[in-house]
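Hey, can you fold this one?
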Amino acid sequence: MQVVSSYGAEIKNKNIPIRHTLALYREAVRCLTEIYETVWTELSMIDQIKRRFNEAEHLVHETKKNHARFDFDARFPKMPSYLRRAAIQHALGSVSSYHTRLEQWKNGAISGKPKLVYENHAMPVFYRNVMYKPGEESENAACLKLYDGHDWKWFRAGLLHTDMEYLRRHWSGKKSSAPVLEKRHQKYFLRFSYTEEVTLSKTPVKDQLICSVDLGINTDAVCSIMRSDGTVLDRKFINFPSEKDRLSHVLGRIRRFQKEHGSKQIGSRWAYAKRLNTELARKTARSITEYAHENHADVIVFEYLEMKGKISGKKRQKLHLWKKREIQTMCEHKAHRYGIRVSRVCAWNTSRLAYDGSGPVSRDPKNHSLCVFQSGKQYNCDLSASYNIGARYWIREIIKTLPETERSSLEAKVPAVKRRTSCVYADLLILQNEYGCSKAA
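Sure. Predicted structure:
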């Protein structure tokens, strides 16, 4: 399996003409998009992608053997060939996507008439040798071919030392793709991408170790290391109270500012809050993955969290800021680099039902992370949910590998496993007991 990782190195130089180059590239993409929109009828008749691209290039690029129909070369003289082709590819993609969405709108598949996006914040790619030359091994710099307003020339771009040290430490000796220019928060970066070949775990199901994860708002994550027979080997509560406290203070300042001055001039404060929230998600994902790797887990199991509809109540802002999907996506990328698989189970009733099979729980109104079982036992609700998440994974993996007759026999003995939305940890123990008895017989 291929895993693509990327990292952006900040460009320190402010005197090199990056802004001119970016403006010229975006103008070229806009010009090409307008051209291809006018001739899309004839371009769309070409099915092969490579032939379509070649025809699109012949329309705008003049050579000895080809007379261009449009004066693109006159408007953008001496543009490097690789950069021109990147702009052509971007423009073709924009026009093709627009017409696909337009057909879907006409057929009623989507709502809202689509618009053709001419420039779409396009960023240039610096191809090796023709537009990008790496610096020396110990040098924090690279050479870029940029447009200075009159001609394309080579400029030395200094890169941030800490970024280059990170790249040398983690990606030294691995081949990187052509860097892409990136602009974030009025700063420019060169984003390098690296492709790794990894082999995911092929351990048989009965010998696997899983890390079942319950993501939450009060506690960022609760992890349990579990075997197929239901044995819990380890568990961990992952929480970052100082980061959440800092975010809470920032949100409080935003509320007070909005009460006094309204919603104008609040964008920078919200941007800061979003960066804090993103960093919290990254720390949570890193902690989950490292914990699973330290305990030699073969699979990380999450809930399939799908929240639709309008959210109401006191905690609606926390729910809106909760980066549950981003955490799972980051975990999946990091886990694959370690060779760990990622799986998801149904999220219904994992927290509502007690792991011991006693039924629905009652939440403590003063401490929402605690609950009381119907048997009277007080327990951590998130930990109980993590047991149920792991149990649902094992029940699914055990049941689906059995022959139809054996599966029907087990489901008749343990009726609770028929409904995945109500399976709990206790059902896994009963299922394993019945499965062991049937094997012994």
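The mean pLDDT is 90. Let me know if you want another pass with a different chain boundary.
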